[in-house]
Design a protein that fits this description.
With 303 residues, this protein is mainly alpha-helical. It folds into 2 domains: 182 residues, no CATH class; 98 residues. Helix content is 77%, strand content 0%. It has 12 helices and no strands. Helix 7 packs antiparallel against helix 8. The protein starts with a helix and ends with a helix.
Length: 303
């Protein structure tokens, strides 16, 4: 009898389209496997083109003809500032101290570039896994989330690569003491490049995180506005740490980060207005329902 009830319960769940715990685990495994394959394909492509990747991408901020240096110098001349905004990285050599350092760094770079290249697909797989558990109105309100998240992530990586990395490398490589020669290891250089780019891609997810936190009621516009001054101070400190000691560099890094914070406030404000509107409509429907019930009860009493 118990087995019959169990089979009947499973049949009802299948008819409703429900999945068991192990069905979810199996589905998650498939999404993870496909994402891992996408990362592997991107990583293999980068590994096979390691010479181009390192010469033009990883070592790009070391070269004086890097686009950021040229654009800033052209802007300086066009604005009549002369050479005041022009700068270029100091000449320094990279060394290796361990026998397998080169191959390990090539694999490291290939892996992370594979993740960056496959990020839109990875997030799409993640969204396909969680979206069936959402309500229809939740799926509609989150329409386009894959494109927005992927775009913000790639934009953050590009910002870290073209803005933060050249300023930081120029400052760190040029900061030395008398009698010392700056000769960082390949491991150190690649680690810093990774720190300047990949975390920035996740930092640029701030508006998306604010949207979902606002949806569940954890943050509001009043909270974010009350911490605006603290956010400005934190952004200025961060910009001062990762850029050379001049106001132009700090401004170029600080303004986009501050704009992200303001965009997050706007996103939270829109979510709040939508929630307030839905709450007002729900309250109105409740009042109308109670009114109809009361009228029906009065009619029954009259009868």
């Amino acid at each position: 009898m118990a087995l019959d009830q169990q089979h009947e319960h499973e049949r009802i769940k299948q008819e409703r389209g429900e999945m068991s715990f192990f069905d979810h685990i199996d589905e998650l495994r498939k999404h993870i496997l496909r994402s891992a394959i996408a990362i592997a394909i991107g990583g293999v492509l980068c590994f096979l083109n390691k010479d181009f990747i390192f010469d033009h991408v990883i070592f790009g901020p070391r070269h004086p003809d890097f686009p950021t240096y040229r654009i800033l110098c052209n802007f300086s001349h066009a604005a009549g500032l002369g050479e005041s905004v022009c700068f270029s990285p100091p000449n320094f050599n990279l060394i290796t101290r361990e026998l397998g350092e080169v191959i390990m760094q090539v694999l490291y770079v290939s892996f992370w570039l594979g993740i960056i290249m496959a990020f839109p697909y990875i997030f799409w797989e993640f969204w396909k896994f969680i979206s069936p558990g959402l309500h229809e109105h939740e799926r509609k309100s989150a329409r386009g989330v894959v494109a927005v998240c992927s775009g913000l992530f790639l934009l953050g990586v590009l910002f870290g690569y073209f803005v933060i990395a050249p300023f930081s490398i120029s400052f760190l490589a040029g900061y030395t003491l008398e009698g010392l020669e700056v000769a960082p290891t390949l491991d150190s250089y690649v680690t810093y490049i990774s720190m300047f780019t990949i975390p920035t891609g996740f930092i640029f997810q701030m508006p998306i995180a604010a949207y979902f936190f606002a949806r569940i009621g954890l943050v509001g516009t009043a909270l974010l506005k009350s911490f605006r001054r603290h956010a400005i101070v934190a952004i200025l400190i961060l910009a001062a740490i990762i850029t050379p000691p001049d106001i132009v560099s700090q401004t170029l890094v600080g303004i986009p980060l501050y704009l992200l914070y303001e965009v997050s406030i706007l996103v939270v404000g829109r979510v709040q207005k939508r929630r307030e509107k839905q709450a007002a409509e729900a309250e109105k429907q409740l009042i109308e329902s109670e009114k109809r019930i009361q009228e029906r009860n009065e009619e029954e009493d009259d009868d």
